[in-house]
C-alpha cells in the first residue's frame, strides 16, 4: 500500500509512517482494550468516515500492527485485534494519553467520552507505586458509560461494565479530570455536585491517590 514517507532512516519517522495518520492511534487505543468488530470500532469512533476506517485498518494490517480473526460462535464474525507487535504500542498509547490529559483543559460542547477511552484513561493515570498493599474496587459512571477498576496490591484490572461489590461507585462528568489533576479536591467535587458517590467518602480521596494526572511544570 502507498504510504507517505518522511524520507528519513529513523525509528520515530518509521513509527509515524505506520501510526501517524489521522485516527490510527485511536484505533490502537480501542483495540488495546480488546478485539472488536468493524461495527464496534465504528461505534466507538462515530466521526470516522467508513472508508477511512477501512483504509486505516488495512494500513495497520499491512504494517503487522492489526490482524483479523474469525469468531465461530454464536455466528461467524470477523474481529480485529492487535498483534504481538501491535500490543507493544499499548505503553506508548498510555503514556501519550497521560501526557495529553495534562493540558486537556475543559471539554468542548461536542466532545464525547467512550467506554474504551475511559478504560484506557484509568490505565494511563494509574499509579502502581501508590497502590501497593491496596485491595479496592471502583465503579465509574459517566452518563451511559460504565467502567470499573479493581486494584490488588499494585496491580490494576480495568474494563467495561459494572463491578459487583464495588467498594466505591463514582458518578461524574467532565470535572472528573479536574479532580484527578488536583485542580479541585474530593471535598469540593462532592460539595459542588460534580461528583456523586455510593460508598465510603474517604475512598474518593483514595481514588484520586491511585489515579492521578500530573500537571505540567509551571502550571498554576
Question: How would you describe this protein?
Answer:
- This protein is of the alpha+beta class and 220 residues long.
- Helix content is 40%, strand content 20%.
- The chain has two domains: 11-88, Arc Repressor Mutant, subunit A, CATH 1.10.10.10; 108-210, Nonspecific Lipid-transfer Protein, Chain A (2-Layer Sandwich), CATH 3.30.1050.
- The chain contains ten helices and seven strands.
- The chain has a five-stranded mixed β-sheet.
Query: Which CATH architecture of the largest domain?
Result: 2-Layer Sandwich
Give me the count of strands.
7
Say what the CATH topology of the largest domain is: Nonspecific Lipid-transfer Protein, Chain A
- Number of DSSP helical runs: 10
Give the CA-CA distance, first to last residue.
47 Å
What is the N-to-C order of secondary-structure elements (H for helix, E for strand)?
A: HHHHEEHHHEEEEHHEH
The main β sheet shows up as: 5 strands, mixed
What structural class results from the helix and strand content? alpha+beta
With strands numbered from the N-terminus, the spatial order across the biggest sheet is: 5-4-3-6-7
Query: Would you tell me the overall average pLDDT?
Result: 93
Q: Which descriptor suits the 3D outline?
A: globular
pLDDT < 50 runs, ≥5 residues: none
Radius of gyration (Å): 19 Å
CATH superfamily of the largest domain: SCP2 sterol-binding domain
Strand content: 15-25%
Overall CATH class of the largest domain: Alpha Beta
Keywords: DNA-binding, Transcription, Transcription regulation
Protein name: Winged helix-turn-helix transcriptional regulator
Pfam families: HxlR (PF01638)
Domain HTH hxlR-type: 10-108
